[in-house]
Amino acid sequence: MTEGLWDPDPQDPERVRGWADQLAGSLSARRVDAGLTALEYANLAIRGRLLERIVDEQLPVALEAEPDLISLVGGGNDLLRPGSDPDRMAGVLEDAVHRVRRAGVDVLLATGTDTRQAGVLRAIRGRVAVYNAHIWSIARRHDAYVVDVWGLRAIQDWRMWAQDRIHLTTEGHQRVAQAALVALGLTPDDEAWADPLARLAPVPSGQRFRSDAEWFVRDVYPWATRRLWGRSSGDTRVPKRPQVEPLAPSATAATPSDATGPTAGAAGTGGPGSAERVTPQ
């Protein structure tokens, strides 16, 4: 989610932006408005990564940058796999959070989304809920921040999700970025960030069936084939922002006008109100 699929970057259509970039852009804009230097930011996320690879490969790089805040968001790809163990995953996550906190760095976690209205993905809802319960407990034990994606009812709307049904659209990412501001104890940029979209008429059953069939052919079958051969969509990819660099506020900050519906993811803080460097994973 943190790499930003599928929120096209307005500055570069070949790249994606996402909630973390939007959050960083908002924090940078607030710093500049206050007469401070721009936020320093890196984004190490790579699509398709499992939790242990995030912790083993990305976390050491993030810590070497000596940030003030690291967003550590992972586990969704694990939970999609049959037989995934949210209790074991929580152990991996807690060890990682402990390492970050021991280094004196703040941590931003995020819960998984509620899949009760997500068709076949409803089958993993129990595992997601168990993992989320662990996340809240880990945050309490280690004094971490949590973005409550599960509780963000506004994204329980198919228009917030891209065609692959597992990644957010521009507006979905925008809502999560606003939820992250709130999680950090800051005022959101958009007062209506949690408001649901206007309701639409129910989709006819025949149209739903055709849509499900198209989704299976376009997204599920290729995903299952990659799993069978032990491959991932991110195998040949590298982080889009591997170096910590000052972030121009206009480069990634989102506004309500960016949210275009179904178009197809740390900053460090000396405290949530004084963000200086951020490194997401």
Automatic annotation (TrEMBL):
Keyword Transmembrane helix in record: no
Region (Disordered) location: 232-281
Keyword Hydrolase carried by entry: yes
InterPro entries hit by this protein: GDSL_Rv0518-like, SGNH_hydro, SGNH_hydro_sf
Gene Ontology MF terms in the entry: hydrolase activity
Record key words, sorted: Hydrolase
SGNH hydrolase-type esterase domain segment(s): 2-175
Composition-biased stretches (Low complexity): 248-266
Protein name per UniProt: SGNH/GDSL hydrolase family protein
Species annotation: Occultella glacieicola
